[in-house]
Amino acid sequence: MSALLGPAEWEAVALSLRVALLATLASLPFGIAVAWLLARLRFPGHGLLNGLVHLPLILPPVVTGYLLLLTFSPQAPLGATLEAMGLGVAFRWTGAALAAGIMAFPLMVRAMRLSLESVDPKLEEAAATLGASRLRVFATITLPLMLPGILTGTILAFAKAMGEFGATITFVSNIPGETRTVPSAIYAFLQVPGGEGAAWRLVVVSIAIAMAALVMSEWLARRVAARIGGQDA
Amino acid sequence: MLEVRVAHAFSGFSLDVAFDAPMGITALFGRSGAGKTSIVKAVAGILQVDSARVVVGGEVLEDSVSGVRLAVPARRIGYVFQEPRLFPHLSVAANLRYGMRGGDMEPVVRMLGIKDLLSRRPGALSGGEAQRVAIGRALLSRPRLLLLDEPLAALDESRKAEILPYLERLRDEAGIPILYVSHSVPEIARLATTLVAIDAGRVLRVGPAPELLSDPDIAPVIGVREAGAIVAAQVTRHHADGLTELACSAGTIFLPRLALPEGGAVRIRIEAQDVMLAGTRPEAISALNVLPVAITARRAGAGPGVMLQLRAGDDLLLARVTARSAAAMGLVEGWTGYAIVKSVAVAAADVGQT
Q1: What separation, in Å, do the N-terminal and C-terminal C-alpha atoms of chain A show?
Q2: N or C, which end of chain B is more exposed by having fewer CB within 10 Å?
Q3: Residue B248 and residue B295: Cα distance in Å, rounded?
Q4: How far apart are CA B75 and CA A131, in angstroms?
Q5: Position B221 in a domain
Q6: Helix ranges (DSSP H) in B121-203
Q7: What's the CATH number where B105 sits?
Q8: Domains held by chain B: number
Q9: Would you state the pLDDT for residue A230?
Q10: What ipTM describes this predicted complex?
């Protein structure tokens, strides 16, 4: 691939993959937990949590990015604390991952929640009567049965994280090699004369990655569905 | 063996029942909505009720007075639901292993005849097969008590007939008390050792199944058209003309050929409406079964019928006749005569192994 892309372009693609991977993997356990809370429990603040999770979907990305900046900048209390612990995220690639993760979170939770809601609680009840603890029921019944939703949610979130632009550029700016992901790089190339060629190559890469993600999610979903509902062992 | 007390106020319905049950199958019987399933759910701990006491084989699983309430997984109660509830992503073998507590699955697999299904997925099983696997899965968790909540209700007649013999073996071989919910009279007549008649959230009567099924006062709860006593008998001979001869305490009974070995003990359900009475021993009659009886109890129905309890040897029968015949023949307590039952009136499903 490096033969087709210039060093700056390749850097952007590699960074984007790294950012999207971290964003997706780090939000995966939270996504499952929130999906479970929303699907299986009714508690005071249920609606609030639901709204909060979906907020990044509705808010202008710039607003989300600005709110992140206010929270995690070294001047803010939380940002300063993290900075002192060596975990600062402002203007770093980990910050880009945080922004991408938050923007992708609603998509992830939605897919998982839908899939979890189709898991029959009667099966979990049956597992409990067979002596299984809550944790074992979740790990051996709930989780495998909601696997299609977990896969779909993960791949959707990854694709969304790859393409995140507004919140990222507002929160962590557009620093080559640190926070210049593919969308930011395309934006940057389009700002300079003669940058169209590089922008185009990145556009093609973006399309290829998005298509690959979609095809893979379809294929995985079909395989998993066959495993769950299938007739043969 | 099993002690159950459950009290709970639902909106618009209150449940307050208490009964003790011995080994064997204890059937909770009553119309739908009588509260049977709620009782079973409370026993399993799935339904949290206002007040309960559940003791199985001396172990207190729940006691509201002393504040004991074991969680569902800790109760070790095998629960077979109306639907099989097999885990669709696991093979039959993995389903059976799910709650297994040591030991060998072979005897249970053999008893339920599910050896050929082990490598299949639940999606590839028929309703009857799936329910047998569900029973096996519950048994293999080595439960203290087995709950069967209308396990046959979702199956058609031929599937029911396929499973009933396994349930009879379960009753005789499992060695644990079984609580069985049903609103099907034939099922209960075949399986139940003890009967708990439930009506509108209350226990109407508890007692040995033969005693309750032959009680004319219980007949209205069962439904006069379905009421019928059970008679213990033994297969003595298979005749060449397609009949099976059986011996009961009152004499000989002929039934259409039974697929049971000679010497086998059975219980036969004889519906009250299939029993005819005669003052003298009838001659030249097509019915093959004529038993000497004496009326021991009588209950007038709301309609034109009268329900009579008859003593036939050591067994009790129920007979439903019209009030007009009862008056004309003087059918009151103490009357002696003959009960006539057509062989073909007794269906194969009404004969169970004991």
Answers
A1: 41
A2: C
A3: 18
A4: 8
A5: no
A6: 127-140, 157-173, 185-191
A7: 3.40.50.300
A8: 2
A9: 58
A10: 0.83
> Do B279 and B201 have their domain in common?
no
Residues of B in contact with A131 (CB under 8 A): 73-74, 76, 99, 101, 141
B244-276 confidence digits (pLDDT tens) = 999 999 999 999 999 889 999 999 999 999 999
Q: Are residues B259 and B138 in the same domain?
A: no
CA dihedral B116, B118, B124, B127 (to 10 degrees): 80
0.80 surpassed by pTM: yes
Domain co-membership, B235 together with B183: no
Q: B11 vs A37, B15, B32, CA distance in Å?
A: 28, 11, 17
Least confident residue range of A8-22, B56-70, B163-177: B163-177
Query: B126 has which bridge partners?
Result: none
Contact across the interface for A233 and B120, Cβ inside 8 Å: yes
Shared domain check, B111 and B52: yes
Residue of B nearest to A145 (CA): B89
- Candidates B86, B121, B129, B147: best to mutate against A (most CBs of A within 10 A) is B121
- What's the pLDDT at A1? 47
Four-residue CA torsion sign, B145, B149, B150, B154 = negative
Q: Which of B163, B188, B213 is the C-terminal boundary of a domain?
A: B213
On whether both B203 and B244 belong to a single domain, the answer is no
Is the Cβ pair B89, A233 closer than 8 Å?
no
Same domain, B112 and B260: no
Domain hosting B16: range is 2-213
CB distance A123–B87 less than 8 Å? yes
Q: Quick check: helix, strand or coil at residue A108?
A: helix
In a domain, B315, yes or no: yes
B339 found inside a domain: yes
CB within 8 Å: A127 and B87 = yes
CATH number for the domain including B275? Answer: 2.40.50.100
pLDDT tens-digit map of B9-62:
998 899 999 999 999 999 998 888 888 999 999 999 999 999 999 999 889 999
pLDDT in tens, A106-152: 999 999 999 999 999 999 999 999 999 999 999 999 999 999 899 98
Antiparallel, parallel or unpaired: β B145-149 and B77-80: parallel
For residue B258, the tally of other CB atoms under 10 A from its CB is 18
Say whether both B232 and B172 belong to one domain.
no
Is pLDDT at A232 greater than 50 in this prediction? Answer: no
For residue B87, list chain A residues with Cβ-Cβ distance below 8 A.
Answer: 123, 126-127, 141
State pLDDT tens for residues A28-81.
999 999 999 999 888 999 999 999 999 999 999 999 999 999 999 988 899 899
With 70 as the cut, is the pLDDT of residue A229 above it? no
Question: Distance (Å, rounded) from C-alpha B149 to C-alpha B168?
Answer: 16
Asked if B110 and B48 sit in the same domain, the reply is: yes
Torsion angles phi and psi, residue B146, rounded to 5: -115, 130
